[in-house]
Amino acid sequence: MIRRLVVPKELGEIEVRLLQWYKAEGDPVSADEVLLEFETDKAIVLVTAKQPGTLRRCFCGPGEWIKPGEVAAWLSDQPDEPLLADRNTPGENLAATFDAT
Amino acid sequence: MSPILAASLDDVLEQLVVQVWVYQARGGDHAGARAHAERAVERLLSRGLPQARAGDGTMLLDPYATCNALKARAGEHADEAWIDWLETLRRNAVSLPPAPHRYRFHLNREWRLPSPPPGRAIVLRLPLPLRGQLGTPQVRLLEPAGALMDRRDEAGRVELRLDPQRVRGSVVVEMAVDLVAGETRELAGPSAGDPAAAAEEELWLRPTEGLIGPSPTVAALARDLPGGPGAARELARAAFDRLISLLQFGDVHREHLDREDPLGGLLKSSWADCALFSTLFVAICRARGVPARLVSGFLLYQAEPSPHHWAEVLVEPGRWVPYDFGTWDYSAGDTRDPVWGAFFRERIDARFTAEVAPRHFTGWGSARPPERWLRLQRLTGDRYEHTLRVLPSGELFQRDLVAVETLGAA
């Protein structure tokens, strides 16, 4: 299954800025591993996967802005599963925690 | 508004020294400046300035209320300290050469940090000039030694990542950065027809950003003003003058803001600081369809290099013009004053521009501000000290020691 990493709307109405990925496309991800870091004007937010998988697609790079509700990445259960049609294709969301430092 | 009696008499006296009699103090007569401040506080207390006593007998005052009580609009009865304060403000305002000059900005910043979550690096940020930076800033971690894991420089800020195992409470960093700055009457942006212009307009027309949000009060005020998208400069001038006539420039506790309508509430409380004045101004411009943005950084006055906010308005495609509500202070709220009434309207002096909301911000990193805080200033040696303290404890949260050198014409 392809799981979507979605920026939660609870983080605010304006965009968040991606600071860095801790994983690259193709990397396996374990439950409780840090995936990425982004920031708002108030805080730095660390995103930790709560489900294992493979990071398949990153939709934005360091320094880019993402709106809450947008998909930041796709992860899959198996490393070679077919991907979704496009970024906005509905699907299952990855379980993740968003911890503000 | 109930006063927040959280600063010692000494804190308030030193704040008055640096704001009102800073040239006397820097000229070697700190005792004389302090004596002026003591007499000013005595006068205010005799007129009913609220006070309290700490457990050890120390007098406690509200520093914001104390400073605001000294201010008077032109034509109103003024305390003698306000006459001195005006002179200092105006001396600062003409202290920088209009032509571009090179400045060296020194910042020593101390943070008091709570214990970080285990395993997570401590991230701290320092402001860099978004405009006119020269070379690579010198940044040195003074405390705790050996804790620096990584340094990242980018537009408008430097980020330090520290080993959490080595940080126990206090972190101190010393920074020096050079920049070129001079008088600014307008800044370039994307010109008409450039695809970036539309994106820029969208970003700076947003009805929600920080304290900007839906407000019938702000909308009603905006509707009353002349000008608009086809006459942005007319709108901006009218809004600027109108706000200066409606509000007084002074300190405002953030917890006193109306939770439902923070900007509209200012029109009832009648006080606004530089950030609130500018934010309300930006909200008014946007409500009338004119792109506007909040800008912040540091004034480069050698006597008092304080943090400051101002606004910029896109008066036509590709032309941003600055508006600074410090003008209230110079003119004592009188926009008809022939010299000071529009002193920093469509013009500002040399500045260290650190943030342009909403996308260029320094960010707090791991040093997230407390829910309630108090800002205090004083002279410490030859440096201007600016502290943020946690309320109600009064504990230090962040201390800046700032100095500015003028290096010569650019």
Walk me through this protein's architecture.
The complex is a heterodimer of chains A (101) and B (410). With 101 residues, chain A is mostly beta strands. Chain A has no helices and ten strands. Chain A has strands at 2-6, 16-21, 28-29, 34-39, 44-49, 53-58, 65-66, 71-76, 92-93, 96-100. In chain A, the strands form two sheets. Chain A has a five-stranded mixed sheet, with no helix packed on it. Chain A has a five-stranded antiparallel sheet with strand order 7-2-4-5-10, with no helix packed on it. In chain A, strand 4 (34-39) and strand 5 form a beta hairpin. The relative contact order of chain A is 0.35. The model of chain A has no long low-confidence stretch (mean pLDDT 92). Chain B has 410 residues and is α+β, with helices and mostly antiparallel strands. Helix content of chain B is 28%, strand content 31%. Chain B contains eleven helices and 19 strands. In chain B, the strands form five sheets. A six-stranded antiparallel sheet of chain B has the order 6-9-4-19-18-17. A five-stranded antiparallel sheet of chain B has the order 10-15-14-13-16, covered by helices on one side. Chain B has a three-stranded antiparallel sheet with strand order 1-3-2. The longest helix of chain B has 17 residues, at 30-46. Chain B is globular and about 60 Å long. In chain B, 43% of the residues are buried. The model of chain B has no long low-confidence stretch (mean pLDDT 95). Classes of the chains: A mainly beta (101), B alpha+beta (410).
